[in-house]
Amino acid sequence: MFVLSTSRRHDKLYYLLYGGLRIPYRNLSKCFIVVKEMKLYHIITYMKKSLTRRDFLKLLKAAAIDLALLTVGSSGYGLLIAPAQVKIESVRLKLGRLSPAFHGLRIAQVSDIHMGGWMNAERFQHIVNLVISQQPDLLLLTGDFLLGHGFSKNSEQHLQDLINILSPLSRTIPCFATLGNHDYWTNAKAVREMLKASGIRNLTNTVFTISRDNEHLHLCGVDDVWEGEVRLEDVLSQLPDDGAAILLAHEPDFADQSAVTGRFDLQVSGHSHGGQVVLPFVGPPILPYLGQKYPSGIYEIRGMYQYTNRGVGTGRLPVRLNCPPEITIFNLEANSSI
Ligand SMILES: [Fe+2]
Fold first, then answer.
1. N or C end of the chain: smaller count of CB under 10 Å?
2. Residue 315 C-alpha to ligand 1 middle, in angstroms?
3. How far apart are the C-alpha atoms of 236 and 244, rounded to whole Å?
4. SS3 assignment, position 178
């Protein structure tokens, strides 16, 4: 049994629990935390009268996170099993500008591989095998191939692992990609070279058009919104007036800007990981910059669909709870075909 009773030590424990995310409770004058057999119980004995409702809700939320993380840690569920339980999300989308020539097109999306964290070559090969089993016509990869900051010998091996797995895949399924913030934080140039060596078309600030029966579907991409150089005007200038257009943008909250153009039918993104930990009645307590407004699933913004994939990898904390990794399969429908 472990008991803390001072606010200073209380803060320290939270610092350890959250791996760097510190949530101080200045308004608590006395608080006991009991950890017994890896189960955590908060016993709040005294609070200052000045504790606001907002503080109290914050405390409840943090307590819920503690319980979730410690239950995860003690059972091994979140750490060892949940990140491996890939869920295939099938999404039917009727796109207004989609030609009947593309009705029934199956597009797979994989995001946030984060090779080198929880993800390794064996796990990623399993994910690619799942993608192949879905027999998609195309695969979209929406950034964050690597993890963290800086580039090392290990990073070179992680990129080689990606090339070894993605090269045979791209020979059977056309693959398209854009970069994410972690690719910039590690080495964007090396990631671009990995894409090229893997036979994957990099859509950064450009357009690739697929044609069937003289009808067109445009695949577009922008650079990473957080760290890269987004040139949406360049993309629009390359985009013909007719035909459905799908935009790859790593950060989902960019949808507010892309939707305003009125030219894209769908934006696909990753980045948020869905929050990785989703608490009942609370939702994801932690979401990244530019991944907070549209954190997971389907949205409609000014007539444009936004889809945010939860990713297949994890951030530095290899935990997922109530937020399984995801492969998305879009089944596109043309308006006039229904
Ligand atoms: Fe990510």
1. N
2. 6
3. 13
4. strand
Task: Please tell me the distance between residue 229's alpha carbon and the centre of ligand 1 in angstroms.
Answer: 18
Domain definitions of the chain by residue range: 2-75, 88-337
Taking only the tens place, the pLDDT of each residue in 21-72 is 333 444 333 333 333 333 333 333 334 445 566 666 665 665 665 555 555 5
Query: Letter for the amino acid at 263?
Result: R
Other C-beta atoms closer than 10 Å to the C-beta of 258 total 27
- Region 281-299 average pLDDT: 96
Helix (H, G, I), strand (E, B) or coil at 134: coil
The hierarchical CATH code for the domain 88-337 is 3.60.21.10
CA 141 to ligand 1 centroid distance, Å: 12
What local confidence, expressed as pLDDT, does residue 7 receive?
37
Answering whether pTM is above 0.85, one says: no
Let me know: does 188 contact 215? Beta carbons within 8 Å: no
DSSP track, 77-99: IIIIIGGG--EEEEEEEEETT--
Token code pair at residue 171: 């020979």
Query: 314 CA distance to ligand 1 centroid (A)?
Result: 7
